[in-house]
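In response to reviewer comment 3 from the previous cycle, which asked for concrete evidence that the modeling workflow produces usable outputs, we include below a single protein chain processed end to end. The sequence was submitted unchanged, and the resulting structure tokens are shown without manual editing.
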Amino acid sequence: MTDITLRADQIYVACNPRDEGRRIRIKSYTLGHSHAHVVDANTGKRPRWIAATQLHASSTALNGRPRRSGYALVIGDETSGRALDGTETERTEIAWYVQELFPSGWGNVEERSDRASALAVKAGLQERNAGTEFRLVRRTITLTVEAEGDR
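The workflow returned the following structure tokens.
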């Protein structure tokens, strides 16, 4: 899972193309627990527990490639841009970058989803490249989808 808050009634779509867009809905989740109780999004049947680490904010991995496993959060109706339940929906994505100072300015060297692993990458680079300056940068993107009013 990538920097999202799991809540009841969120809809997720399978990332594996062989699952043909299967959707699940969170029936219940207790903050801090490792699993969420989910059901089929269309029928409400097939109740089961799923690891929270399988629920992702995006269908795209940090390397830019499509995810092949787990489930991606469905923010809204892809065709209309409206939130599925008619309410405002918000998602925040955080990425950490290790940057190197080049003669032309700062440039991204590595991207990580958490600060601890980015700091480890930075320390390793500094150890191997004495005299080169590195820094850690946090990028935060917040996406809000609002329901359209009646027309």
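Residues 11-74 form one domain. We consider this sufficient to address the reviewer's concern, and the full set will be provided in the supplementary archive.
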